[in-house]
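Thread: "does anyone have the structure for this chain?"

Original post by V.I.:
We have the sequence but no experimental structure in hand. Need at least a predicted one for the grant figures.
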Amino acid sequence: MISRRLLALWRRYREGERASIHPPEAWNISVLLVFPNVYSVGVSNLGFQTVFKILNKTPGVSCDLLYLPDEEAIPSLEEGQELCSFYLERTPREFDIILFSISFENDLINIVKILKLAGIPPLSSDRDENSPLIMGGGIVPSSNPEPFAPIFDAIYLGEAEEMLPKVIADFEGVSKKAYLEKISKIPCIYVPHLVETENIGGFIIPKVQKVRNRWRDFKKLSNASYIISNYSLFKNAFIVEVSRGCPRKCKFCLSSHVYSPVRFVESKALEALLNEAPTEKVGFLGTSVSDHRGLPELVKKYSGRLTFSFSSLRIDAPDELFQALINSGAKTLTFGIEAATERLRKAIGKPLDDELIFQRIKELSPHFPNLKLYFMVGLPGEKEEDIDAFSSFIKRVGECFEGRISLSISPFVPKPMTPFERVPFEDLSSLKSKIRAIRKAASGIKRVSVNYELPKWSQVQALISRGDRRVGLYFASAIKSIDKGVYLEALEVETLPWDFLRKAESLNL
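Reply from O.Q.:
Generated one for you, tokens below.
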């Protein structure tokens, strides 16, 4: 029996939606697209919405959605009641293919949870021909698929727009075994169980070459929201993608190194979307929004008709973009500063001058009641004086900004495919000590609050980020323990679990 609590939850969310795409009720291939987090997070993800659109526009394919159920629905599911899809209210086991969209490393934990709630064995080796085919994709497995290898039957590497419809359409009329053998020959498709592995330097390494797929005509064909929701993190906003990749290449940033080359949507394509915007609230999305040369003119042209917000703005962005943020009625000004000293910011590839930071904050202070600044601790090259510098940095921010100030602190997590992929993840006790020091430095200013990510969860993220197949088995509870130091310490081995992607791309395969 399908969980009544879950049905009530899905129906409440559907009542708050305006969706221009729905799954067809007749199909040759049925796909369940899963976002392994709650509805408010999943429906806010434009990449997830884009895959939903392109699959439902693929002839013969019907794609429904599933999100991680909210806590209110979990008890009934744990009592044996059934999960169901968002629109068609079908159980996951009724679908031909279940496709997970993965944006964060720690999604791995929720993937296992969702499969168990659906009554589907988490490990690929435990599923038979009658089980749905389980596939994954997204930025995280596209940078290192190995922790997901024991769970997924197949992994789609790279951007979805060009190849995914063909990959899914190939499922029609064939057995799961034959389908996996067929798609394993596609350069951007990785079928882990068909790949031999070897132990090199303590890591399980796949003996294969694969490449990430890219969408090459992105400049003329932007993506925008197909579902607008009252319950989205960006309530009732029309989200428009303006760029993919980033020319800045900060050494810690996964997106700027995986989404390559850098591409900006042409202004004419953006203008066409803005002319048809279904709501007055428009959010611009991109890793490098501030670097889009045509955006200030577009913002100026549509001011008065539309209000604009931005997924992120660099503190050195053009004045016109900040004016647009002011005009939108935004209450919070948000910047990624990363470190409290110029020396360390330069070392990590984000060379922002102190004077620029404080001058911009002071200029914008009259227009915003809230300021949020993001920092990391445990960065490569970080010294004791970099942590000590928070005291004077916070004090000076307080002098420049009149409203409430929130500091968000996250432990640095090394990412595959970045220049920092081999550096160690810092010891938990050291990270806790640094966070305590920053909290103490901020305690003397009443308007300043400090939020931080628990180092233990950042450690989990680091394990999955640089893991091999044993990490996936561990989080699926298939093995009791792993040597965490192998993945958390400095990686001095010659071959890394994700090198098979980089080596293949260097050969232009």
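V.I.: this helps a lot. The longest helix spans residues 384-400.
O.Q.: and The CA atoms of residues 26 and 62 lie 7 Å apart.
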